[in-house]
Structures are given as C-alpha cells and as structure tokens.
Design brief:
Length: 384
C-alpha cells in the first residue's frame, strides 16, 4: 500500500502581509501532478489545512478544489485538524463526504477515527489500520477520562491512544498500524513560523508511538524524522517565513509492505515563487548583473550592508524586486549593541560635541564631515 503524506498547508496564509494564495494554488497542482505519477492508494493530511480557525473564502475554495481533485481520482483521503484549524468547522459535512473516500476527523470526543485498508499483504499480515488523532491538549482528553492521570501532552496522547475506539480496547501492536497526528514531538527542530509553547510544555515523547509502524505528523514546518525513520513530519509544501529559507520542501511518499517494512521517499517541491534572502550593498543589489539571472518575482528579504541608511531603499528596490517583503541592515550599527549613558561633563561640552558623541554611540561610527556641517547649521539656526 502506498500513501502520500502531507501536512500544514496553511491555506489563506499571509507572510509579511503578502497573500500566499497564488503560490498555494500553484503548489497544490504540483502535488496533484506528483500524485498522478506515483499513483498512491491514499493521501494523508496531518493538520493545519487552514492558517486560521475562520478561513478566508479563497482558502475554503482552494481546499474544496483540492479535495475534489483527489476525489475524482478515487483516492482515500485521511485528514485531521491542527492547532490552526477549528476542529468542529473542519469536520463539517464529514459524514456526507465520507462515502466519497474523504475522511475528515471530527473534534476529539474520547475516541479516534479508525479506518482499515486491505492490500496484497493482508492475507499474510492482516489489514492496515489508519488511526486519526486531531490536535489535542491535555484538557481535551481529561474531560473524557477524568480518572486518568493526565499532567502533560505526553500523558494526554498516551491516554488518547489507549482508548482508540468504543469497541476497541487497545491497538494491536502485531498489526500494521499508521497514526495521523498533529503534535510537537520531542526532538523535532522548530522554526520561528510555528507556534511555540514556553518551556516545552507541549512536548510529546516518541515512546507513545511504539505500536505504530508509521506516524504521519503535522505541526513542524521542516521535513524531518524524529527518533526513528518512521516517525516523520512531512513539513509545509511552501516556505512560510525567512527562518525556512534553507528548507527543501517535499512530498513524503510511504510504501507499507509486511510488518516493519516501510519505504520512505521524498519528492522535491518547487514553488512558483521562492522565499529567499539577498545580501549586499544597495549598489550591489541594484546592479543588473547580480539579479538578471534570478527570479525577481520571488519573495525577498533584502539585507543591506551599507553603513549609512539608504533613503527610501525599500521602494527603490521594489522596482527590481516587486515582492520584496522585508528590508534590514547588517552593519556596524546593527551588529553592536552599545549602552548609551549620560555624561558627567555635559555642562562643559558644546551641543555639536554632545551630538557627535550620541551619534557615535548609537551608530558605532563617527559622523562624516558633511553630517557635522549639516548638524552645526541646524543647531545654529535653532539658537538664532
């Protein structure tokens, strides 16, 4: 059995006030092309389909179009809600679409959604079980199991997995089991575009997943394994912050054969517009030879190394890079943090001397002769 593992689509997301809808529509079509090539039996989507609990109309339309493209290919889809989704709103009409093979996990109500899949190894190894656990907090599980000791996220997930279904006492570790979940697993590498709980209170230990042959995770934006190859985050299909600029986005394809026999393949994804950083002086970044062979439509973070601020630099650079999202400086002033203290001999210094000292401490460099002349003339006009 072959499955495509996706997560964290974050449909409707805006990055630095730029809408990602066009890029998201492009990448979903790329994913459909990959699906047509690898011909999987099903698709797993491990949460954060939307970027907000109340998604925009464009985001809802895009999700509807994507599900429709999967349905007409007669694929089984296993999707759960993440911390960005509204669990109740996400599963609306789930009973209707369930018959079309679109399985949307409802909000956690004490049990897991569970589906069984037959393949060519079923006679020998039994069927494949797919369990779906939407994003949960300890309070969600504690409300259904008040007598259980639930003190943190690890114990919450452990208790939830210990009660897989109303008619199922436990998960059969001898069967081939897959879990779809949206949690932060201890040891995963985070980036600044993800929601972070102070003190690591949301950590889930990998020991809770011992009964599963593959754990399809969502929540972390960088594709990665945690603890073992078969506990895996597929990552976002697009870069959603400049902390992700060095990520290599991909689609994860898993092939389940006999018990403990899981093959994993990552197929690269290339966005319509990359999210990247460029660095240099204003003159260097505006020199045609340095940008003519690049995609100027990419989402750009420009880091200027000029010692002096360039007037209206962001507007000027947007003529070349229309999707310039962010501009910062990397120079003496920004690299050093100096404490500005009051001088004991203020009364003995002239205004221009005081201003020179202030400028040097703030900018980590002396004023130029031109700047001194300008400030002197301003001070003189004020005194006059």
């Amino acid at each position: 059995m072959k499955l495509v593992h996706l997560s964290d689509l974050h449909l409707g997301k805006r990055v630095n006030e730029f809408s990602m809808i066009e890029n998201q529509e492009f990448i979903l079509k790329k994913i459909i092309n990959i699906i047509d090539e690898v011909k999987p039996d099903g698709v797993i989507i491990a949460g954060d389909v939307y970027d907000k609990s109340v998604p925009s109309e464009d985001a809802v339309r895009l999700w509807d179009d994507f599900l429709n493209m999967l349905a007409i290919r007669h694929l089984q889809v296993y999707a759960i809600s993440g911390n960005h989704d509204s669990a109740v709103r996400f599963a609306e009409h789930s009973r209707i679409v369930d018959g079309a093979g679109i399985h949307l996990s409802p909000a956690y109500k004490g049990h897991l959604s569970h589906y069984t899949f037959s393949d060519e190894y079923s006679d020998k190894c039994g069927d494949v079980n797919i369990y779906m656990l939407p994003f949960i907090k300890p309070a969600n599980v504690r409300s259904f199991y008040p007598d259980e000791e639930i003190t943190d996220y690890t114990s919450a997930v452990r208790v939830a997995l210990a009660h897989p279904g109303a008619d199922e006492e436990h998960i059969d570790s001898k069967s081939r089991n897959i879990l779809v979940a949206h949690q932060f697993v201890t040891g995963a590498e985070r980036c600044e575009s993800e929601e972070i709980t102070i003190g690591g209170l949301d950590n889930v230990d990998t020991s809770v997943f011992d009964d599963f042959d593959y754990v399809a995770l969502g929540h972390i934006h960088g594709p990665q394994k945690v603890s073992r190859e078969t506990i895996r985050y597929s990552g976002t299909p697009l870069k959603y912050s400049f902390s992700e600029k060095d990520h290599h986005k991909s689609v994860t394809v898993i092939t389940i054969r006999e018990k403990d026999n899981v093959e994993i393949e990552k197929i690269p994804l290339e966005a319509k517009r990359d999210l990247r950083q460029i660095k240099g002086t204003y003159e260097e970044l505006s020199d045609k030879k340095n940008y003519e062979n690049t995609n100027r439509e990419d989402y750009i973070h420009a880091v200027l190394t000029d010692e002096e601020d360039v007037p209206d630099a962001i507007s000027k650079l947007r003529i070349i890079y229309p999707n310039l999202m962010k501009l910062t400086y990397d120079n003496k002033r920004t690299r050093e943090n100096r404490i500005i203290e009051g001088g004991a001999d203020v009364d003995r210094k002239s205004p221009i001397e005081l201003f020179e000292e202030f400028y040097e401490k703030q900018n980590n460099q002396e004023m130029s002769d031109e700047q001194k002349e300008l400030v002197t003339s301003l001070i003189d006009s004020i005194w006059d």
